[in-house]
Amino acid sequence: MLPPHTPSPAPDATVIRTGRRGAVTGLPCSVLLIAIGAIGVFGAVVIATGNQKGEFTAAGFAGLVFMLALGALGVFLFIGHWANRRNRILLDHTGLWVDNGKLRNVIPWQTLAGVSLYWSKLGRSQKVYSLELFPAGPIDQDDPVLWGLVRDEEPLHPGLPRLRYRLPFPPAFLQQMVAAVQQHVPQLWLGESERATGHIGRPDVKGHRKRGLQ
After folding, report:
1. Which of 19, 55, 60, 206 pairs with 102 at a CA distance of 20 to 30 A?
2. CA distance 112 to 115
C-alpha cells in the first residue's frame, strides 16, 4: 500500500533538473548561432554595398537568407531554453511531479496501471528516452501542466489504455529516473521497449484548443 498523498513533493524527493541542463548546453549554442547570423548578415551587406556597388548577386542573396535563418534559429532556441530553464521532475512516494517554475502538478502512483521506459534511435549513436505513465482510469487531457505530455497511441500491453503521459528526459538522467521509479513503485515497472525513430511525437495542440472552445 502506498503512503498517503502529499500536497507538495517530499523533502527527500528525487529532483531531476531537466531545464537547467538544457539551459547550460543550449543557451551558449543559441547565442553562438545569433552571433554567426549577425556577423554573416553584416558581412553580406558590406560586400554587397562595397564591392558590388549596392547590387546583390544570387549567391550573395542566398547567403544573406541563410545567415538570417541561422540568427532566427538562434533566437528561437534561446527563447525556448530560457523559458524552460526552471523545468524540474520530482519523484517521491506520492508520484511524479512536473514543475515548470510557475505551475506544478503531480501524477500520483496510485492512479497508474504501469510505468515503462521507451527509447528510440537518434542518428547512429544517440538515443531519445521517455517515461511512459499509463493511467488506470480517465485523465484530464487539458490539465494546465500535464496536457502537453498526453499521447494517444497503441498500448504497450493488452489492458493498458491508449491515452498515457509521455515524459521525455535527457539521456544523462536515465539511471536516476529508472532508479527512482523502481524505488517507489517497483510493482508498476513494465521494463523498457525500443520504439520507432521519432517516437516522442508532438502534443495534441489542435485537440487541446478545440476542447478548450467547447
Report:
1. 206
2. 8
